[in-house]
């Protein structure tokens, strides 16, 4: 496992205790979040985590729209791994391509957990269609066994982590991206270790959150907004044509 281990049992057991605090903090800080840097109107697609759908990202979507971004969910129902995206990703890639065509510009992908892994793969597969990638608690830089959720992933997705196709998928996600990448991670995460949620080739932002309901945590939303503002000065990727 390349020296990576799953998060400690104490962190795992703390997850259900900490999770309800995130939306409480969000309610407290909602007004202040509206004072974050304004967006540039770019197209942003939000990719949910394992077993979650677009509703899990409602708070993030509402905030980013409030800041001036053009936001859409992925529109593929619950994230059940390869079951949701069409095997090798065809359904997801088609959704991103369609959004880019309608927006007339590449799409910035913000992916939570498994959604972040998928966002990185999409950035490799869709040159000229993805502008930047922001991952939130996404374990892209290590093997599935270095998480506490790999068994749930196998059950929900129907794919085994020792399948060569799954190993190749994980390897592709770990490769340096051809577009700007930001990784938001936490050392307190009880499901996926922070060490495999970032690498030397991306801009890393550390937060003090758990994993469950991470997308409701105000500090995470601030980090996402900061990542989008930081990438605003980056040149658009070359390639592709837009109507």
Describe this structure in a few short sentences.
The protein is an alpha/beta fold. Helix content is 40%, strand content 14%. The mean pLDDT is 93.
Task: Draw up the topology in text.
Elements lengths: L8 H10 L2 H13 L9 E5 L10 H10 L2 E4 L8 H4 L4 H14 L3 E6 L1 H12 L4 E7 L13 H8 L6 H11 L6 E6 L16 E5 L10 H14 L12
Helix pairs in contact: 6-8
Major sheet summary line? 6 strands, parallel
Tell me, what's the shape?
Answer: globular
Mean pLDDT: 93
The SSE order reads HHEHEHHEHEHHEEH
Rg from C-alpha positions? 17 Å
Name of the level-1 CATH class: Alpha Beta
- Which architecture name does CATH use? 3-Layer(aba) Sandwich
Could you characterize the architecture of this molecule?
By secondary structure, this protein is an alpha/beta fold. The protein has one domain (37-231): 3-Layer(aba) Sandwich (Rossmann fold), CATH 3.40.50. The protein contains nine helices and six strands, in the order H-H-E-H-E-H-H-E-H-E-H-H-E-E-H. A six-stranded parallel beta sheet has the order 2-1-3-4-5-6, with helices on both faces. Helix 6 links the parallel strand 3 and strand 4. Helix 6 (114-125) packs across helix 8 (164-174). The longest helix has 14 residues, at 90-103. The mean pLDDT is 93.
Features:
243 residues; alpha/beta; Rossmann fold; 9 helices; 14% strand; AB_hydrolase_fold; Alpha/beta fold hydrolase
């Amino acid at each position: 496992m390349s020296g990576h281990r799953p998060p400690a049992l104490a962190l795992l057991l703390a997850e259900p205790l900490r999770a309800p605090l995130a939306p409480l903090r969000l309610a407290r800080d909602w007004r202040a979040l509206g004072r974050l840097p304004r967006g540039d109107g770019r197209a942003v697609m939000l990719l949910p985590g394992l077993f979650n759908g677009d509703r899990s990202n409602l708070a993030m979507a509402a905030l980013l729209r409030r800041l001036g971004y053009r936001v859409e969910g992925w529109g593929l129902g619950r994230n059940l791994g390869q079951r949701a995206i069409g095997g090798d990703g065809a359904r997801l890639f088609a959704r991103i391509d369609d959004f880019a065509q309608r927006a007339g510009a590449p799409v910035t992908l913000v992916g939570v957990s498994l959604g972040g892994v998928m966002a990185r793969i999409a950035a490799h597969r869709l040159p000229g269609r993805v502008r930047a990638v922001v991952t939130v608690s996404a374990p892209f830089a290590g093997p599935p066994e270095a998480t506490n959720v790999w068994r749930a992933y196998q059950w929900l997705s129907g794919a085994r982590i020792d399948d060569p196709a799954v190993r190749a998928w994980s390897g592709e996600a770990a490769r340096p991206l051809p577009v700007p990448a930001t990784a938001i991670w936490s050392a307190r995460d009880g499901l996926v270790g922070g060490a495999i949620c970032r690498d030397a080739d991306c801009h890393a932002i550390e937060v003090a959150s758990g994993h469950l309901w991470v997308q409701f945590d105000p500090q995470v939303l601030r980090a996402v907004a900061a990542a989008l503002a930081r990438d605003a000065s980056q040149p658009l990727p070359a390639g592709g044509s837009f109507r």
